[in-house]
């Protein structure tokens, strides 16, 4: 922490004694935060140490100094629960499987995808020690977990007098896996458990005094009384300071946006003011689209970090709000009585849209907004190692179209019919002119012959072509829909045939040609943690389910959809094949299409993918340029006619 500030710089006070100042030379963020509590499940759940090391090196190169460090916490919770008297079956009933731990930790769900093998705890604990060592070697401040009140049901047997509330269902889950048990922070047992746990965290992991826990994440509190809400946050914070008197609570501000009907100014102020000013940092999690600081008087005096959320579920589709992220941090800094202390990147999933994270991380070092047109042109030169007129034009076009969504309140969550369960009510809306994407594709193909040796270019060529095919799939869906309603069998067979027998296979071949778009890699990484065949099956089920059904019965169906080689062929294409086949049968028989009946049939296809046991390529197959060029020659003329 910096105590000396140059004359004329902005000052923000945060810290145990409110004498710690964060300094800005015009605008250099004191904190550069990274990760969302969901990122650990959607992206890094299966990482080994070499992959973690690369990510931490990337953080250092991009100036990240406040990363989330949540790995291995279940191993410590297991020890705490055992010390409290819970037996192993109580603990196993509580933890979810690896791919769903983010929501287990937030009290949204339990048990599903579990139980966690003991080998998992050992591996994750070992990883966490290396993660923390590497982060601290770079001068980063790892954010460690604290207690939110989420407890196993077994606590009630040991402490029947405890003030425990059972929550309602979450996200279409029933109470077999949801309806978690929350210990009231005002109950003396909360301080006991919270202190026990944080003592373990500090003992095993050391501390840099910043801890994250989130109360009421996507859950409505039992009372809106401001006195109650202040007491809650005061008690949560007390469980931290009982162990670490210098503790600072880092809290995601997502709840204020996601449940805006409950969190009105009096409730927000009460929760925030239960903690002394300067001892909490709020992540304004979705500030590029839904800033909370602007209607809460800068979180009523608590320091906050302006964050770009950008991505939901780790979906692949192109998306960006470059105008908003280019101006938003500077507007927040200059807001009346601003308490902003940094900027952050909080995507639910990574491995997508790298240009957006390049721009966002650079803004932490800027005194003012960049010229986006010039920045995009120079990005092309940096990314490929040389100036290329057509690629400079392509990136400028992307920045003025698909990467510049200006639709108010828009959430980037890939709704393309390609990756969603087929129906007659699918979302085909776009925030950009598809003609701009098509011209970008042409420019990339023009530059391709001389740049295929560059991995960054190959990645981008695959990604641009993937996005074009995604958009074309929506057109074929519309043709299928129109043909069915017009009872035109030849048109239905033609459009459905092209989609199923050509577009999907070509897309699958394209994705399989690049190592960054392989389902096989995700599954292989998952199974690599297994000590035996039952563990391998458990991890494989976790990995497949998260991408598809997201729950035992499709509770959050396709939320984490990915356009990956293997997944396109054996999951998305199979659903569409059944849909078209069903429509053909309906026209032949004269019977109406029944969505409920189709949903039951397609659910069997979806479950079949999860249990098919098939091995998928983990190495690229085929020549990316040849595949992309063939797709271009075939589909570019068709696409031109549609625009």
TrEMBL record:
Protein origin, superkingdom: Eukaryota
Ranges for domain Alpha-N-acetylglucosaminidase tim-barrel: 32-367
GO molecular function: alpha-N-acetylglucosaminidase activity
Record domain Alpha-N-acetylglucosaminidase C-terminal: where: 375-634
BP terms from Gene Ontology: system development
Enzyme kind, highest EC tier: hydrolase
Protein name: Alpha-N-acetylglucosaminidase
Gene source species: Oryzias sinensis (Chinese medaka)
Taxonomic lineage: Eukaryota, Metazoa, Chordata, Craniata, Vertebrata
């Amino acid at each position: 922490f910096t105590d000396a500030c140059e004359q004329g710089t902005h000052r923000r006070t945060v810290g145990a004694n409110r004498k710690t100042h964060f300094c800005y030379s015009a605008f250099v963020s004191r904190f550069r935060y990274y990760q969302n509590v969901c990122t650990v499940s959607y992206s890094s759940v299966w990482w080994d140490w070499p992959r973690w090391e690369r990510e931490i090196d990337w953080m250092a190169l991009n100036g990240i100094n406040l990363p989330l460090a949540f790995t291995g916490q279940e191993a410590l919770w297991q020890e705490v629960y055992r010390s409290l008297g819970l037996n192993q079956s109580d603990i196993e009933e509580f933890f979810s499987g690896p791919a769903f731990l983010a929501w287990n930790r937030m009290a949204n769900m339990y048990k599903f995808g579990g139980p966690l093998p003991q080998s998992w705890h050992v591996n994750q604990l070992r990883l966490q020690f290396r993660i923390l060592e590497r982060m601290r070697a770079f001068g980063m401040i790892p954010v460690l977990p604290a207690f939110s009140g989420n407890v196993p049901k077994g606590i009630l047997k040991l402490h029947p007098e405890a003030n425990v509330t059972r929550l309602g269902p979450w996200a279409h889950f029933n109470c077999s896996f949801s309806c978690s048990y929350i210990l009231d922070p005002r109950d003396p047992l909360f301080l006991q458990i919270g202190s026990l746990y944080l003592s373990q965290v500090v003992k095993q992991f050391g501390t840099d005094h910043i801890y994250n826990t989130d109360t009421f994440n996507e859950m409505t509190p039992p009372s809106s009384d401001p006195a109650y809400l202040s007491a809650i946050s005061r008690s949560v914070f007390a469980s931290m300071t009982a162990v670490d008197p210098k503790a600072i609570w880092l809290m995601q501000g997502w709840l204020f946006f996601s449940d805006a009907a409950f969190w009105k100014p009096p409730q927000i102020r009460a929760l925030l003011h239960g903690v002394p000013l300067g001892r909490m940092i709020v992540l304004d999690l979705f500030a590029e689209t839904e800033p909370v600081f602007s209607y809460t008087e800068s979180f009523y005096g608590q320091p906050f970090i302006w964050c770009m959320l950008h991505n939901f579920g780790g979906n692949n589709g192109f998306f960006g709000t470059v105008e908003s992220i280019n101006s938003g941090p500077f507007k927040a800094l200059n807001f009346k009585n601003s308490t902003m202390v940094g900027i952050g990147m909080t995507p639910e999933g990574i491995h997508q849209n790298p240009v957006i994270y390049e721009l966002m991380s650079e803004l932490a070092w800027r005194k003012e907004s960049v010229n986006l047109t010039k920045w995009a042109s120079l990005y092309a030169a940096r990314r490929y190692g040389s100036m290329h007129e057509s690629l400079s034009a392509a990136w400028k076009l992307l920045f003025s179209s698909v990467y510049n969504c200006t639709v108010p309140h828009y959430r980037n969550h890939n709704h393309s019919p390609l990756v969603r369960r087929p129906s007659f009510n699918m979302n085909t809306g776009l925030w950009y002119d598809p003609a701009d994407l098509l011209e970008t594709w042409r420019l990339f193909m023009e530059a391709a012959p001389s740049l295929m040796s560059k991995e960054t270019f190959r990645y981008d060529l695959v990604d641009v072509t993937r996005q074009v095919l995604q958009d074309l799939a929506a057109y074929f869906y519309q043709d299928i829909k129109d043909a069915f309603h017009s009872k035109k069998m030849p048109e239905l067979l033609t459009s459905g045939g092209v989609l199923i027998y050509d577009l999907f296979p070509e897309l699958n071949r394209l994705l399989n040609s690049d190592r960054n778009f392989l389902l096989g890699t995700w599954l292989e990484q998952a199974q690599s943690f297994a000590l035996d065949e039952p563990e391998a099956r458990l991890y494989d089920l976790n990995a497949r389910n998260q991408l598809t059904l997201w729950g035992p019965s499709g509770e959050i169906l396709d939320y984490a959809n990915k356009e990956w080689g293997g997944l396109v062929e054996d999951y998305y294409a199979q659903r569409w094949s059944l849909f078209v086949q069903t429509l053909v049968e309906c026209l032949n028989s004269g019977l109406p299409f029944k969505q409920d009946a189709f949903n039951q049939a397609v659910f069997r296809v979806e479950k079949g993918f999860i249990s098919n046991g098939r091995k998928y390529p983990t190495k690229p197959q085929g020549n990316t340029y040849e595949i992309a060029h063939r797709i271009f020659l075939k589909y570019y003329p068709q696409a031109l006619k549609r625009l």
